[in-house]
Write a structure and sequence with these properties.
0% strand; 23 residues; mainly alpha
Length: 23
Amino acid sequence: MDDMNVIIIKFTKMMIKFDKSNN
């Protein structure tokens, strides 16, 4: 469960970075 949380957080941060660089 913990691992899953870490993966989701990393993925979300990556998506936010990607979204910002897209704009």
